[in-house]
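Input record (one chain):
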Amino acid sequence: MISCQDYDYIEIVCMYHFPIKLELVNGETIQGKALGTQRNTEQEECIKVLVGEDERLINLSSIKRLIVLMDNPHFHAVEFN
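The corresponding structure, as predicted from the sequence alone:
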Protein backbone atom coordinates (compact mmCIF):
# COMPACT_ATOMS: atom_id res chain seq x y z
CA MET A 1 0.00 0.00 0.00
CA ILE A 2 1.33 3.44 -0.87
CA SER A 3 0.66 6.74 0.87
CA CYS A 4 -2.04 9.14 -0.30
CA GLN A 5 0.67 11.65 -1.20
CA ASP A 6 2.44 9.09 -3.42
CA TYR A 7 -0.89 8.11 -4.98
CA ASP A 8 -1.38 11.75 -6.02
CA TYR A 9 1.69 11.45 -8.27
CA ILE A 10 0.25 8.32 -9.85
CA GLU A 11 -3.01 10.16 -10.55
CA ILE A 12 -1.18 13.09 -12.17
CA VAL A 13 0.79 10.92 -14.62
CA CYS A 14 -2.34 8.95 -15.49
CA MET A 15 -4.51 12.03 -15.96
CA TYR A 16 -2.05 13.52 -18.48
CA HIS A 17 -0.91 10.16 -19.96
CA PHE A 18 2.69 11.19 -19.34
CA PRO A 19 5.55 9.08 -20.66
CA ILE A 20 7.14 7.64 -17.53
CA LYS A 21 9.97 5.48 -16.26
CA LEU A 22 9.34 3.29 -13.24
CA GLU A 23 12.20 1.95 -11.15
CA LEU A 24 10.93 -1.02 -9.16
CA VAL A 25 12.16 -2.32 -5.81
CA ASN A 26 13.37 -5.52 -7.53
CA GLY A 27 15.72 -3.47 -9.78
CA GLU A 28 13.58 -3.73 -12.92
CA THR A 29 12.99 -0.59 -14.99
CA ILE A 30 9.82 -0.08 -17.02
CA GLN A 31 9.32 2.73 -19.51
CA GLY A 32 6.04 3.60 -21.19
CA LYS A 33 2.94 5.78 -21.18
CA ALA A 34 0.78 6.00 -18.05
CA LEU A 35 -2.80 5.04 -18.87
CA GLY A 36 -4.64 4.76 -15.57
CA THR A 37 -5.05 2.74 -12.41
CA GLN A 38 -6.62 -0.67 -12.15
CA ARG A 39 -6.71 -3.65 -9.81
CA ASN A 40 -5.00 -6.85 -10.92
CA THR A 41 -6.39 -10.38 -10.49
CA GLU A 42 -5.14 -10.41 -6.87
CA GLN A 43 -7.09 -7.15 -6.27
CA GLU A 44 -3.86 -5.14 -5.78
CA GLU A 45 -3.87 -1.51 -6.89
CA CYS A 46 -1.76 -1.07 -10.03
CA ILE A 47 -0.80 1.51 -12.62
CA LYS A 48 -1.53 0.51 -16.20
CA VAL A 49 1.38 1.37 -18.48
CA LEU A 50 1.53 1.11 -22.26
CA VAL A 51 4.92 -0.46 -23.04
CA GLY A 52 5.36 -0.60 -26.80
CA GLU A 53 2.09 -2.16 -27.93
CA ASP A 54 1.45 -4.04 -24.67
CA GLU A 55 -0.41 -2.86 -21.59
CA ARG A 56 1.18 -3.86 -18.28
CA LEU A 57 -0.19 -3.63 -14.76
CA ILE A 58 2.48 -2.63 -12.26
CA ASN A 59 1.68 -3.09 -8.58
CA LEU A 60 1.95 0.31 -6.91
CA SER A 61 3.71 -1.12 -3.87
CA SER A 62 6.52 -2.40 -6.13
CA ILE A 63 7.47 1.10 -7.34
CA LYS A 64 10.62 2.64 -5.88
CA ARG A 65 10.91 5.71 -8.12
CA LEU A 66 8.68 7.39 -10.70
CA ILE A 67 10.23 9.66 -13.35
CA VAL A 68 8.27 11.74 -15.86
CA LEU A 69 10.05 11.76 -19.22
CA MET A 70 8.83 15.14 -20.44
CA ASP A 71 8.83 18.68 -19.17
CA ASN A 72 5.70 19.53 -17.22
CA PRO A 73 4.65 21.98 -14.48
CA HIS A 74 3.87 19.26 -11.91
CA PHE A 75 7.02 17.27 -11.08
CA HIS A 76 9.96 15.44 -12.62
CA ALA A 77 10.66 12.53 -10.27
CA VAL A 78 9.51 11.17 -6.94
CA GLU A 79 10.85 8.49 -4.60
CA PHE A 80 8.19 6.26 -3.08
CA ASN A 81 8.38 5.15 0.54
